[in-house]
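Internal tracking record. Fields below are filled automatically when a chain is submitted to the structure queue. Please do not edit lines marked as system-generated. If the sequence contains nonstandard residues, flag them in the REMARKS field before resubmitting.
Queue: standard
Priority: normal
Entity type: single polypeptide chain
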Amino acid sequence: MQHQLHQRRMFTAALLALVFILAAVSTTEAGKKEKPEKKAKKSDCGEWQWSVCVPTSGDCGLGTREGTRTGAECKQTTKTQKCKIPCNWKKQFGAECKYQFQAWGECDLNTALKTRTGNLKRALHNADCQKTVTISKPCGKLTKPKPQESKKKKKEGKKQEKMLD
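SYSTEM-GENERATED OUTPUT FOLLOWS
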């Protein structure tokens, strides 16, 4: 009889433990399901409007630009952003103006320059950019092509000089 009582208590304890575990799991899952979905806050803040990049020193390199936006409930209406103005020949058109350039044209023998045209691809940060631009650069050395026979004769002459030494 004592043995049956012990078995009954063990069975009751196991059953209670199982009920407790099931209750804990269902409460946890129910808590997950009951969470209300976050509603997206609608903002009355306008889009950022950016100034041109102003170099920290000189006329190119690292600099900053100022941004502003409007809205009664905006937490931030002004901010400063780091930027960079390239220190190369493209800087004459502004760092915010991106162009698609054609191939370089033939060399103008009167000016010793070659040119190419670029069409505006995009204007960053509301920059005021020209629709088309033309750039020029020096042609480089202008040399007449040498005939191949003269190179061969020079090589043969050098070989004969080495053989004589």
